[in-house]
Write a structure and sequence with these properties.
Blueprint: E1 8-9, E2 12-20, E3 25-31, E4 36-43, H1 45-50, H2 54-66, E5 76-82, E6 85-91, E7 96-97, H3 108-127, E8 140-144, E9 147-150, H4 155-159, H5 179-183, H6 190-205, H7 215-224, H8 230-233, H9 239-248, H10 260-272, H11 321-330, H12 361-373, H13 377-390, H14 395-407, H15 411-424, H16 429-442, H17 445-458, H18 463-475, H19 479-491, H20 498-510, H21 514-527, H22 532-546, H23 548-561, H24 566-578, H25 582-595, H26 600-612, H27 616-629, H28 634-646, H29 650-663, H30 668-682, H31 685-698, H32 703-715, H33 719-732, H34 737-747
Antiparallel strand pairs: 1-2, 2-3, 3-4, 4-6, 5-6, 7-8, 8-9
Helix pairs in contact: 3-6, 3-10, 6-9, 7-11, 9-10, 11-13, 11-15, 12-13, 14-15, 15-16, 16-17, 16-18, 17-18, 18-19, 18-20, 19-20, 20-21, 20-22, 21-22, 22-23, 23-24, 24-25, 24-26, 25-26, 26-27, 27-28, 28-29, 29-30, 30-31, 30-32, 31-32, 32-33, 32-34, 33-34
């Protein structure tokens, strides 16, 4: 990082460096316009450099943190970017940190006072939907001994993509990290309660409970090792205080306090009933506290739940494979590891129960799949975690778990297992290319891009990976890289297959590069005239670049080469309809169905034509007949739901959309339509919101879907949520005028 002292950053004159950690450097600065000092936390440039979505995540999360106003939270004044430097401006206070007071047990009264105020700050933030994720003594400022200020809210989430990154650091500080954070599980407020429990443990014993030579080893201890009893470290600690710590530090989040304030109240009661804390117990000198360096953690945009971005160190991963697999969730949440007794807080020991029958890995997988199909996700995940734990270095098995979770519409959980498979899998081009497409299918484009680039590093001749780079880069907004990758395919001295040329054509088409798309599709059809997809793409590119008449000529040429391809007849039907030749359109759609009676899109196209012509009953009968032939086709149910909605029969429409979602649980658009239909049917904002959140979480990078979710919130009268979605849509596609108009309406 360049030396900023003496420079001006966003109107702030940098005076001196006052702190440095793994995630940022802190400077004292002067703001002439308001005649005041501020603290500026400057993030290392490599965070933005390694992840193209960083600035978007940074702005979204920083906005949420900047809204926090509480007497025990350090105020964030501003955030911004300048010349590749990303920074957060905070109020400046002359203060040390709680770390300065540690190393020996503190007086119980002082401990309870600090914990109560920090807990109050956490409860307030949690009510605003903000999780701290890195509660530790160095993030608790002490302007006065009895006045703690909690800082760095969400910083681990703002700056990072995973809890293990390419730099090998850890998001969140290992010594204070909850087991679920170490595993990479979704987090809620209880992770902060665990971290605050570690702070409490250190305040009353003088040391953190777990330490080791590496951060990874500390994380593993949090996950699998029994907690060293606080009274073993400090025999003078009253038992009621120890019970509070044990509950706060339960491995299973469900066994902890539900709110930080509840923990603080229990501590106050315990302290009130206890004598003064004894002096430091006689024992060997405590080891120095574990390193408080930290690194990236995921950020979720305002509005839709978003997945953490992950980038793993691939080189040399084999040495850490077993350890990493344990850390990243192969232990069942809440299940005590071997030889660890559950925390009973003085309850009598239970009678020994008969051992449950042991299931094989294949049985666990089959049971997990069955439970997924029944909608029992928690039980399915428990089965999968047990299967993975039984074979912790079997990347194929873990990949299979990811595939099942993806198939049933759980991309976040699928991504977690895919991350593990990437760590454990071979470092070869085909594996990374496959992982890239898997990430892409899940909608996790930053990880996909990293995998494709790794495949090309290992084999520059892996031309298919260039198509992956193009798709991922385009989704991330880097159109220059997307175009460069496609050009590499077209210029390759290695003759690409027709499929690669076709893929390049679709990539150019997405970039609105019509002549290049025509050239790529043209090469594909020249090499293999039977490639109907390339013919269809060539027709689309010709239509965009030269007009309808030329496009119809291309389709006629395509049908002459492939007379039994229903998709080309359907394409001819759409073009004929647009040209105003309704009989030709109807004949083309019917010809597609004659060739393939199960060809779904021809049914929906013909139904659309009938409906547009005012022949609604024919459209309705056609779709009902189509569903009898293809009862498991989600989009036939969706099309029929649309007709029901036009008739005002929202209940029947919603029933068909529910069936469609069951058949295609990974479709965000189906969930969106279900949300809109359900709201029209019931007016139930809570259930509608749940469906909207599901929709955007399934396809978070689709600007049209995100825009539609915002418009739906606006129709519900919820402009606050609508505004977040409009802004999100504009971040994905800055040219989306409808989102700009929606933002203006809701901002006004």
């Amino acid at each position: 990082m360049p030396d900023l002292i003496g420079q001006t950053l966003g109107g702030y004159r940098i005076l001196s460096q006052i702190g440095k950690g793994g995630m940022a450097t802190v400077y004292k600065a002067f703001q002439p316009s308001l005649d005041r000092y501020v603290a500026i936390k400057v993030l290392p440039p490599y965070y933005a450099a390694q992840d193209e979505t960083f600035l978007r995540r940074f702005r979204q999360e920083a906005r949420a943190v900047a809204r926090l106003r509480h007497p025990n939270i350090l105020i964030v004044l501003e955030y911004g970017e300048q010349d590749g430097t990303t920074y957060i401006v905070m109020e400046y206070v002359e203060a040390g940190t709680l770390t300065d007071r540690l190393g020996k047990p503190l007086a119980l009264g002082d401990v309870a006072q600090v914990i109560q105020q920090v807990a109050s700050a956490l409860d307030y933030a949690h009510e605003q939907g903000v999780i701290h994720r890195d509660v530790k003594p160095s993030n608790i400022l002490l302007p006065k001994p009895d006045w703690p200020l909690l800082t760095d809210f969400g910083l681990a989430k703002i700056v990072g993509a995973t809890h293990l990154t390419q730099s090998g650091t850890v998001a969140g500080t290992p010594a204070y990290m909850s087991p679920e954070q170490g595993r990479g599980d979704p987090l809620d407020a209880r992770t902060d309660i665990y971290s605050l429990g570690i702070v409490l443990y250190e305040m009353v014993t003088g040391d953190v409970p777990f330490s080791a030579e590496t951060p990874m080893a500390v994380i593993v201890k949090h996950i699998i090792e029994p907690l060293p009893l606080p009274r073993a470290r400090n025999p003078g600690l009253p038992e009621p205080v120890e019970r509070v710590i044990l509950k706060a530090l339960a491995k299973d989040p469900g066994d902890r306090f539900t709110r930080a304030g509840e923990m603080a109240s229990a501590l106050a009661d315990a302290v009130g009933a206890a004598p003064a804390l004894a002096a430091t117990p006689g024992r060997e000198e405590a080891a120095p506290p574990a390193s408080t360096s930290a690194a990236p953690h995921p950020a979720e945009p305002a509005g839709p739940p978003r997945r953490r971005l992950r980038r793993w160190v691939l080189a040399g991963a084999g040495a850490l494979a077993i350890l990493a697999a344990l850390v990243l969730g192969l232990l069942r949440p809440g299940q005590p590891p071997p030889n660890e007794a559950p925390e009973t807080f003085g309850a009598p020991p239970a009678e020994t129960a008969p051992a449950a029958p042991t299931r094989t890995v294949d049985q666990l997988m089959a049971d997990g799949q069955a439970r997924l199909s029944q909608g029992d996700v928690a039980a399915a995940l428990a089965d999968f975690e047990a299967a993975a734990a039984a074979e912790p270095v079997n990347s194929e098995r873990i990949w299979g778990i990811a595939s099942l979770l993806s198939d049933f519409g759980y991309p976040e959980d699928a991504g977690r297992y895919l991350d593990q498979a990437v760590i454990l899998g071979p470092d070869d081009p085909p594996f990374h290319d496959s992982a890239g497409w898997f990430y892409s299918d899940l909608g996790f484009m930053a990880e996909a891009l990293a995998q494709f680039q790794r495949a090309l590093e290992l084999d520059p001749g892996a031309l298919g990976s260039y198509l992956g780079v193009s798709e991922a880069a385009r989704a991330l907004g880097d159109t220059a890289l997307a175009r460069q990758a496609l050009d590499a395919v077209m210029a390759s001295p290695i003759a690409p297959s027709p499929g690669l040329y076709e893929g390049a054509g679709w990539g150019y088409l997405a970039l609105e590069a019509w002549p290049e798309a025509q050239a790529a599709f043209g090469r594909a059809t020249s090499l293999d005239p039977a490639t109907s997809g390339a013919w269809s793409g060539l027709a689309d590119a010709t239509y965009r670049g030269q007009g309808l008449e030329q496009a119809i000529a291309v389709v006629e040429q395509a049908i002459a080469a492939n007379p039994q391809d229903p998709s080309l007849h359907e394409k001819a039907g759409w073009y004929a309809w647009e040209a105003g030749d309704v009989p030709a359109a109807e004949a083309a759609f019917r010809r597609a169905l004659e060739i393939d009676p199960a060809y779904t899109s021809a049914y929906t196209a013909l139904a659309d034509l009938y409906n547009d012509l005012g022949r609604g009953e024919e459209a309705f009968s056609l779709l009902q007949s189509a569903i009898e032939v293809n009862p498991e086709d989600a989009w036939l149910h969706e099309a029929l739901a649309g007709l029901y909605r036009e008739r005002g029969q929202d209940e029947e429409a919603f029933a068909h959309l529910q069936r469609a979602m069951d058949l295609d649980p990974a479709s965000g658009w189906l969930a969106l339509e279900a949300a809109q239909t359900y709201y029209a049917l019931s007016g139930d904002a809570a259930e509608t919101t749940a469906l909207l959140e599901r929709a955007v979480s399934l396809e978070p990078n689709d600007p049209g879907l995100v825009l539609s979710a915002g418009e739906t919130y606006e129709q519900m009268g919820d402009c606050r949520n609508a505004l977040g979605y409009f802004e999100r849509a504009l971040e994905i596609d800055p040219g989306l005028e409808e989102a700009r108009q929606g933002r203006a309406r809701c901002s006004g």
